[in-house]
């Protein structure tokens, strides 16, 4: 079964524009990390995603939970009030959730590393200044 991630990105971008949402707000509403929202919305990384990620984004955008999955697989999206078809919780979807959490953790660690480097640089400047006064 082919997947059209470009169509998913296009659908998200159109809906975000209609609703006047920012990426941060979409991430917050969907409980999907900002990095993942960015990747999906701008079609930066093409890889298997958890069905729950697409469900969360769909719901946050006011669509049926399986709207983006339908777009991904070139099917007509269900109406908002259509019943939700239970998707099997496969090993792949579990792995995808772990990968998404790891990406979120990595993003946070990178930010901390950058903050720590800045603090170290500032301390070095203070130490240099103090030595210069002696």
Automatic annotation (TrEMBL):
Coiled-coil region:
95-122
Q: Which Gene Ontology molecular function entries are recorded, alphabetically?
A: DNA binding
Q: Does the keyword Coiled coil apply?
A: yes
Keyword terms:
Coiled coil
Highest taxon of source: Bacteria
The reply on keyword Coiled coil is yes
Q: What is this protein called?
A: XRE family transcriptional regulator
- Species per Swiss-Prot/TrEMBL record: Lentzea xinjiangensis
Lineage, broadest ranks: Bacteria, Bacillati, Actinomycetota, Actinomycetes, Pseudonocardiales
